[in-house]
Amino acid sequence: MRRVYLDHAATTPVHPQVAKVAVQYMTETFGNPSSIHCFGREARQAVEGARATVASLIGAQPEEIYFTSGGTEADNLAIQGVALAAADGRGHIITSQVEHHAVLHTCEFLEKRGFDVTYLPVDGHGMVDPDQVARAIRKDTVLITVMLANNEVGTIQPIADIARLAREKGVPVHTDAVQAAGNIPVDVNRLGVDLMSLSSHKIYGPKGTGALYVRRGTRISPTVHGGAHERGLRAGTENVPGILAMAKASELAQAEMPQRMAHVARLRDRFLKGLMEKVPDVRLNGHPTARLPNNASVSVLYVEGESVLLNLDLQGIAASSGSACTSGRLEPSHVLVAMGIPHDISQGSLRFSFGRGNTEEDVDYVLEVLPSVIARLRAMSPLGPGKKQAGPAGGRAGAARGRG
Amino acid sequence: MRRVYLDHAATTPVHPQVAKVAVQYMTETFGNPSSIHCFGREARQAVEGARATVASLIGAQPEEIYFTSGGTEADNLAIQGVALAAADGRGHIITSQVEHHAVLHTCEFLEKRGFDVTYLPVDGHGMVDPDQVARAIRKDTVLITVMLANNEVGTIQPIADIARLAREKGVPVHTDAVQAAGNIPVDVNRLGVDLMSLSSHKIYGPKGTGALYVRRGTRISPTVHGGAHERGLRAGTENVPGILAMAKASELAQAEMPQRMAHVARLRDRFLKGLMEKVPDVRLNGHPTARLPNNASVSVLYVEGESVLLNLDLQGIAASSGSACTSGRLEPSHVLVAMGIPHDISQGSLRFSFGRGNTEEDVDYVLEVLPSVIARLRAMSPLGPGKKQAGPAGGRAGAARGRG
Amino acid sequence: MYSEKVMEHFTNPRNVGEIPDADGVGQVGNPVCGDIMRMYIKVRRGRIADIKFKTFGCGAAIATSSMVTELVKGKSVAEALEISNRTVAEALGGLPPHKMHCSNLAADALHRAIQDYLGKKKASGAEGRGARVGTRAGRPGRGGAAKQGRRWSGRRTGAQT
Amino acid sequence: MYSEKVMEHFTNPRNVGEIPDADGVGQVGNPVCGDIMRMYIKVRRGRIADIKFKTFGCGAAIATSSMVTELVKGKSVAEALEISNRTVAEALGGLPPHKMHCSNLAADALHRAIQDYLGKKKASGAEGRGARVGTRAGRPGRGGAAKQGRRWSGRRTGAQT
Ligand SMILES: Cc1ncc(COP(=O)(O)O)c(C=O)c1O
Ligand SMILES: Cc1ncc(COP(=O)(O)O)c(C=O)c1O
Q1: 3-class SS of residue A31
Q2: Rg (Cα) of chain A, in Å, rounded?
Q3: In sequence order, which ranges of A169-239 are alpha helices (DSSP H)?
Q4: Which of the residues A68, B158, B192, B326 has the least number of beta carbons within 10 Å of its own beta carbon?
Q5: Any CB–CB contact under 8 A between B126 and chain A?
Q6: Measuring CA to CA, which residue among B133, B70, B72 is closest to residue B103?
Q7: DSSP labels for B179-203?
Q8: In the predicted model, is pLDDT for residue C36 greater than 50?
Q9: Touch of B by D (3+ CB pairs closer than 8 Å)
Q10: How far is the CA of D109 from the centre of ligand 1 (A)?
């Protein structure tokens, strides 16, 4: 069976060249960078080289890069670390309602520990309003954290504007660039941010490695304690193969960025055009232009997302509904809810995210399979154009039980 | 030049079979375990299989294993997580003075946040007295954390006794088994512990993966927030290749344990015997019998450790002084200090840690090189047998400056 | 994630469709939860002679809908009322835990349809109709439920429909 | 970690040894810090005619000891006193930051040796000796330092020696 992977926003296959680097640093240059002998020094040198490579991807200085175990840890370190370093362990944090759970749940954790958090709304395209950010800033605001590109609908936020307004009031800005860095041009200085989270496995690097950019002078405390690794900000023996692999992935991403962007955008547009032509009642989610080039998030009316995904999966096509990280749960995506999309529509949302390995044939195969899947499920659905949904009177006994 | 790696306590080369597994899960079974499609389900199944394998290494149930980014994070999660879950965010923790910095510095962090910590002393062999642990327990003690085997001197602690006394008083016990699990038989039930830290890179697995064992019913909170990975205790896309590689390393460690233990003990004993015969004034650090089979920690009198290591390194031999994690700092090892070893002796401490790849020829090569290195440095040293050291009157102007 | 049996029913669902002149129609769910199931039944001599469903929902919702129709066909109304959501899940070889409460409601939909049928029978028989203001027999999805006086327990679904 | 020059001096240190009839002996460091450096000098016509060292310490300690002996040989006493720890580190092409304060004390040891020499010269010349109770000229490692009245700034080194 043909297998077509269209879930690159969830994770990517590791580039063969990247895997080769990982193996080299597992089996050959395997030393502990803290060791003073030759094995250790080789590893140390390699890690510092990798730091420079990753820094260059986002226009940072090598000393401003701190390796972590992934995007989630980078988000946690940024937010918890800045909060911990804040004067009296209390204060105010500003974020948005469409952040990844790594940011949202960290904010909620801090809320329980005494911090105040403002969760800013977004417009129908999932966009945060910089003026609202500025208005939300208080005297005790210790951090603003707004993502660069949304993992679900692909919307790119006006971070440069947010950071400019924040800088005027002296508030540091963190941005979760996990979906952006390596996929679109990102520059910490042009954006003007103070902290930025990166992850390797979204750009053809391995899972389990990420990085936090911290602008020099930013007050931040470690959250994982132990040895003096990563200049005291993140303890733990460095994941040398992961770090070197992430650097290789970053290097390739930087070198091939224009081609990759053009390639995925062309496939994405071919897909959207074909889908809209073949299937009625499909809507694009997210911003029409300020969006990641590889993201096609759509809502297919009158069908439920998982049933579409399962049918696609049966025919070898991998896509996602909502973000992969939460697809094990039944709650409708918090991102689509925040964008004001009605529940019956958001339940039919699907995310197709393209990658460097996809081809036009992949797209054409999906355009062959998907319309008939949708047609079959629509035929099975009690909802549909013109049909009025049953409404409250059809209430079910189980409604009060919540949803698992 | 011949290269002999005798620093397996710092890190180990990844087993070729393990590296192969890692590559497979980077490039082929690369899915995100949270995805519901086939790519994701394959990854999920693999991770759950790995969980069972790692559990079996320490006699645990699969659901009691939580993957982390390494031993340091496992220690942090255990200690911070139990502390966070403790009723009112305050309480008392018992640990020892010879713990790894991942434990000690986490305890110090919690001390700053309002917890009380008792750092128990050890005897001259680096051993904690279980009765002292029992006596230290207070009404508000929330955790006892004592390592299973010391990374520097190899001493194995009486954890089963400690856990039995702790259980009587209802206090959970964590043990850092990073140096032990996979290298000697370890069973969470025979030991009676509630939490146990593991690390992959000490047993021929890759860096950047570890695990925390948490006995069912133990109260613990997450420290990294985000998606509902690892049953809500540790957010972040699972490091699938790292986890599968750690499982493969665990499987091999379990299967080959008797042979590996015998092999490294034989080499270690050959080394110690040869060294003691050839070089006067060498002392073994740590317990004479209750110690890791691969650890030879010695103090070579009248010479300083780093200068020995550098000379060995010039001849291709990799060893360590103190723990690798702190060898970038100039403080004498806190472990040797806690054992009451005088500073001039602890400065000459060296750790040789043997591994499955070492041979008798390796040992003989070191026994050829090391005595002449020591002889040369001793000839250069103002210290020596019979010579009385200069003592305080030779005080230096810089003494008050601290030590960098 | 799903058992083979679930996938088999999901892939080849039995008895999909509507029965225009159904004797009873029952619906559960709403798009907030993610699943809507509607059951149509034909009753002959106290037995479920025909049953069809329409479902908007995930794999579990479709499979349980299909399974319940298969389980119930030919059964007496009393027997049909004994089939629970749990029976359905077991017949499918189990469901993922997080699907048990949300998507396993096909038996509830069936029971609604039977109540609708019984209510209509009663109405077309002897008793008064004061209690049934605003419901028209045979209109899909309305009917029995209103009588229960149970509504949406505060969820803001109205805006979405 | 170390520059090539450091490694070269560490591997082939110059002027290792003692001078039994030294004109001045100076020692710095202690095993708590990790390094002990002892310098022996011979002075002829106001110039450092010979110099030897003994060092217990890390690579930087050995290399700086060696380098200072090379820098100072043949220099006048006044010139020798101008050589600082920094001069030595620079001559070695730099040292790792964490080694700068702890192991870079060879110039201090040299200065002690020179002070010892100057003190003895003074003593064998005219002045009184009341201040020098308990020190015997020429005894390695004692001498000049005691005069300074500077001791161990509270570190518990006595127990370790
Ligand atoms: C926007 C965003 N932030 C954070 C993360 C978490 O990163 P990681 O998977 O490396 O933990 C992800 C992906 O899962 C993401 O898409
Ligand atoms: C006893 C002990 N605990 C914890 C650690 C930290 O583990 P990791 O290197 O995986 O962070 C180490 C090794 O560095 C160790 O030896």
Answers
A1: coil
A2: 22
A3: 188-191
A4: B158
A5: no
A6: B72
A7: TTBTTB---HHHHT-SEEEEESTTT
A8: yes
A9: yes
A10: 56
Query: In this complex, is the C-beta atom of A32 within 8 Å of any C-beta atom belonging to chain B?
Result: yes
Nearest CA in chain A to C110: A396
pLDDT at C99: 81
Whether D11 has its CB under 8 Å from any CB of chain B: the answer is yes
Is the CB–ligand 2 distance for residue B178 below 6 Å? yes
pTM of the model: 0.89
Q: Give distance in angstroms: CA of A72 to centre of ligand 1.
A: 6
Which architecture, in CATH terms, is A4-9+257-396?
Alpha-Beta Complex (3.90)
Chains D and C touch (3+ CB pairs under 8 A): no
Q: Residue B66: beta bridge partners?
A: B212
C-alpha to C-alpha distance for A149 and B204, rounded to whole angstroms: 38
CA dihedral B347, B349, B350, B351 (to 10 degrees): -130
Q: Where are the domains of chain B?
A: 4-9+257-396, 16-253
With a cut of 70, say whether residue B387 has pLDDT above it: no
Asked if residue A169 has pLDDT above 80, the reply is yes
Tokens 């939860």 sit on residue: C33
> What digits encode the pLDDT tens for the residues D51-101?
999 999 889 999 999 999 999 999 999 999 999 999 999 999 999 887 877
What's the rounded mean pLDDT across residues A281-309?
95
What does pLDDT average to over chain B?
92
- Domain A16-253, CATH: 3.40.640.10
Nearest to C161 among A303, A328, A391 (CB): A391
Output the six-digit token pair for B137. 């327990």
Say if D141 is an interface residue toward chain B (CB within 8 Å).
Answer: yes
Greatest CA separation for chain A: 75
How far CA B121 is from CA of A48, A144, B129, in Å, comes to 38, 45, 8
Instruction: Tell me whether B227 touches chain A (CB under 8 Å).
Output: yes
Nearest CA to ligand 2 atom 8: B71
Q: What is the mean pLDDT of residues A374-385?
A: 93
For chain B, the residue count is 404
CA nearest neighbour of B35 among C79, A306, A177, A274: A306
Decide if C34 and A304 are in contact by the 8 Å CB cutoff. yes
Nearest C-alpha in C relative to A401 = C101
- In eight-state DSSP terms, residue A88 is T
Q: Ligand 1 centre and the CA of C36: distance in Å?
A: 32
CA distance B274 to B278: 6
| A72 C-beta closer than 6 A to ligand 1 | yes
- Chains adjacent to C (≥3 CB pairs closer than 8 angstroms): A
Cα B369 off chain centre by: 28
Number of C-beta neighbours around residue B45 at 10 A: 12
State the distance from the centre of ligand 2 to the C-alpha of B265, rounded, in angstroms: 22
Is the pLDDT at A53 greater than 80? The verdict is: yes
Atom of ligand 2 nearest to the CA of B207: 10
Chain C residue numbers with beta carbons less than 8 Å from the beta carbon of A342 are: 31, 159-160
Partner D contacted by B322 (CB < 8 A): no
**Per-residue confidence band for C136, with pLDDT thresholds at 50, 70 and 90:** very low
Q: Which of A95, A202, A297, A353 to mutate to test the pocket of ligand 1 (most atoms within 8 A of CB)?
A: A202
* Closest to A66 measured CA to CA, from A200, A216, A230, A189: A230
Q: What is the DSSP string of B123-171?
A: -TTSPPPHHHHHHH--TTEEEEE--SB-TTT-BBP-HHHHHHHHHHTT-
Beta strands in B257-387 (DSSP E): 282-284, 295-300, 317-318, 349-353
Q: What is the pLDDT of residue B322?
A: 65
Report how far apart the first and last C-alpha atoms of chain D are (Å, whole number): 30
For residue B401, list chain D residues with Cβ-Cβ distance below 8 A.
Answer: 101
Q: Is B71 in the pocket of ligand 2 (CB under 6 A)?
A: yes
What residue spans of A29-94 are helical by DSSP H? 38-57, 71-85
For chain D, give the number of residues. 161
